[in-house]
Amino acid sequence: MKQMEKVKEVRLMLHEAVNTLEGMVMIDSVQRLGIDYHFPEEIDAVLNFYHRSLDVSTGSTHHSLYDVALCFRLLRQHGHYVSADVFKNFKDKEERFGLNVGKDIRGMTGLYEASHLRIDGEDILDEAYDFTCKHLKASMTVMDRGMAGLVRHTLEHPFHMTLPRFKSNYCLKNYQGDNGRTRVLQELAKMDFNIVQSLHQGELKAVLKWWKDLGLSQELRFVRDQPLKWFMWPMAILSHPQFSKYRVDLTKSISLVYIIDDIFDVYGTLDELTLFTEAINRWEVTEIERLPRYICNEISDKVQKEHGMNPIQSLRKAVLGGLCNAFMVEAKWFRSRHIPMTDEYLRNGVISSGVPLVVLHMHFQLGQGMTKESVDSVDNIPGLFSWPATILRLWDDLGSAKDENQEGYDGSYVECYMKEHGSSTSLENACEEVENMISNAWKKLNEECLCSNQFSPSFKEGSLNIARMVEVMYSYDQNQRLPALEQLINSLLNESIP
């Protein structure tokens, strides 16, 4: 009841600020605090007003750099296209970002944040990213410790590239101000964090019970037994509290990817894997195959009841023609120590990442705008499926990411690239190429989210969240541990806010 009282207060404040820049500032605040899901209509009203009438769309010079960058970022984050030309007025006569911009720390942080919404071909935002990175890092040496810490956090965790709910605890601790609006937002965010944490704890209990009752950790002792880690993926992908039941089911799909990955990478001989893949493609019911059949049938039944359409054929195709067959291709390559060409490796690696299967399950679970045409279209792996998968595959291959319980060999894009280019390249050049490919994949993903298509805003956000979660899941330290993931688990599931 106290939470809903605070929700009403914030809703009123958003109503009052709908035609002012203060409304955009409030949207940024509620997003960073993880409470924006309470105010979809109010947020849309503010954004629609600015997209229709604000003269920032023409690059008016009477707006500050920070104001323009904030509006640009928020509008693009919510699917409104705004031309990157709005930043042209902040360039000097030589068409470069000049000294005046370099002295504006607040403006530069806003521009840096906005540059992560760039799409392919937007050179001005590429320049903005390079410029702000260079000057913000240099400026940190003359800032006080508090300001330098905030700038460093922005550089390391730009808002568009990170998971808002995963950062809400940090933002709450650093949300400064003593005016009435700030206090109301803080109070709501604290209550909301603890309520949602309790919800997640209940979901985790359901996941752990399901995994224990299934008994596969006892039958297949060679596979990873990590239901908590698997659950963190749907916590990120479908972060809003109203998707609670979907998070539990999506964890089951994700467990399927990890288990089949271990069967192919760690356990099976080539002959065994060939027989296994053939059996899976026939959809035979045996003990070892009951997991994919069980999960696909269970989710299909729920989708049928909730949305009136049965996706079993698409899910079977994703598991059969997709995931297992892609793993089989890799098994043949790497058990014979064959190193494929980069295009061939990445094309197959997008499927074997498991992301298309997980995104497909999410698409059917959400059911928003689901028609026969939209169901048929996902069989061709649209960009909202393939670009997060590309980011995951390349990020995994870029680092020394080797799961703590895996002993298998599954190749690397870097290795394929170095073989393909021979003595003309180095490990450093290969890694730089992969970093550029990841950056370009993000541009493509941003563009997909701005396109008008059959996919809902919730689905687009889920696709983005997969890409955002990759760094958390694949940033191993020298001990092959995941410190960022461990920190998030403690923050979101164990540490309440007084």
Structure characterization notes:
With 498 residues, the chain is mostly helical. It is built from 24 helices and no strands. It has helices at 2-16, 21-32, 40-53, 65-77, 99-103, 105-115, 123-139, 145-156, 164-173, 180-214, 216-219, 227-237, 244-267, 270-281, 290-307, 312-335, 342-352, 355-366, 372-378, 383-398, 413-421, 427-450, 457-474, 483-494. The longest helix is centred in the middle third of the chain and has 35 residues, at 180-214. It is globular, with a radius of gyration of 24 Å.
Question: What would a concise description of this structure say?
Answer:
The protein contains 24 helices and no strands.
* Helix content percent band: 55-70%
- Assign an overall shape: globular
Give the class from helix and strand content and strand pairing. Answer: mainly alpha
Mean pLDDT: 87
- Terminal CA distance: 18 Å
Number of strands: 0
Helical stretch count?
24
Q: How would a textbook summarize the main sheet?
A: none
Q: Element order, helices and strands? A: HHHHHHHHHHHHHHHHHHHHHHHH
Please name the defining characteristics of this protein:
69% helix; mainly alpha; 498 residues
Fold blueprint:
Elements: H1 2-16, H2 21-32, H3 40-53, H4 65-77, H5 99-103, H6 105-115, H7 123-139, H8 145-156, H9 164-173, H10 180-214, H11 216-219, H12 227-237, H13 244-267, H14 270-281, H15 290-307, H16 312-335, H17 342-352, H18 355-366, H19 372-378, H20 383-398, H21 413-421, H22 427-450, H23 457-474, H24 483-494
Helix pairs in contact: 1-10, 2-4, 4-6, 6-7, 7-8, 10-12, 10-13, 12-13, 13-15, 13-16, 13-18, 14-16, 15-16, 16-17, 16-18, 17-20, 18-20, 18-23, 20-22, 20-23, 21-22, 22-23
